[in-house]
Design goal:
The chain is an alpha+beta fold and 183 residues long. 31% of the residues lie in helices and 30% in strands. The chain contains four helices and seven strands. Strands 1, 2, 3, 4, 5, 6 and 7 form a seven-stranded mixed beta sheet that branches. Strand 1 and strand 2 form a beta hairpin. The chain starts with a helix and ends with a helix.
């Protein structure tokens, strides 16, 4: 496990990804160029920007989405966060983050990249940086009950067609559409 294996897995996932639009394909190429110039670009210590891993967590029937009310962002968003050197791959990082933030055992992850996004943020580094977020589809076991962690102000299941006020609606709706298209 090392920054090299994380880096290699991010390149592999982006190379294999078939984006749903020309804009997403342009972002894919931009992220690949970033990784080509940043051997440690999967670790938060890379101050100019770094790869993060997030998950659209759906219930077993894919009718509800698990969202966190993120304390730093102040909105309802999908689960996810930074890659750690202990993560072998970005898929491992996404699953670890989803498990830690949801408190749900037995989550399953589709290793195929669902989406990607980049955004400026002041994260745990305490300085402005950029997250290059790789997004995956995760499914919870039937009857799974989330347990809020210290990383969340609130954590709840929401019907995919009735997101809460303050949700990153465009993002979540887009991810849900991509997930449904994959089924």
């Amino acid at each position: 496990m090392s920054s090299r294996s994380l880096h290699r897995s991010a390149v592999d996932r982006l190379t294999a990804w078939h984006p749903d639009s020309a804009d997403a394909d342009s972002l894919r190429h931009t992220m690949l160029a970033f990784l080509d110039s940043a051997p440690d670009g999967c670790l938060r210590a890379h101050v100019p920007g770094h790869i993060t891993a997030s998950s659209l967590v759906l219930d077993a029937d894919h009718r509800n989405v698990l969202l966190t009310l993120h304390p730093r962002v102040g909105r309802w968003i999908q689960l996810g966060g930074h890659c750690e050197e202990s993560d072998e791959t970005v898929v491992d990082a996404a699953l670890r983050e989803a498990t830690e933030e949801s408190g749900i055992a037995g989550l399953t992850i589709d290793p195929e990249l669902l989406s990607a996004h980049t955004h400026p943020i002041t994260c745990s580094l305490g300085v402005p940086t950029r997250h290059l977020d790789l997004r995956f589809l995760v499914t919870a076991p039937a009857g799974a009950e989330p347990v809020r962690s210290h990383e969340s102000t609130d954590l709840r299941w929401w019907p995919v067609d009735a997101l809460p006020p303050g949700a990153e609606r465009d993002t979540i709706d887009h991810l849900v559409r991509l997930a449904y298209a994959r089924r």
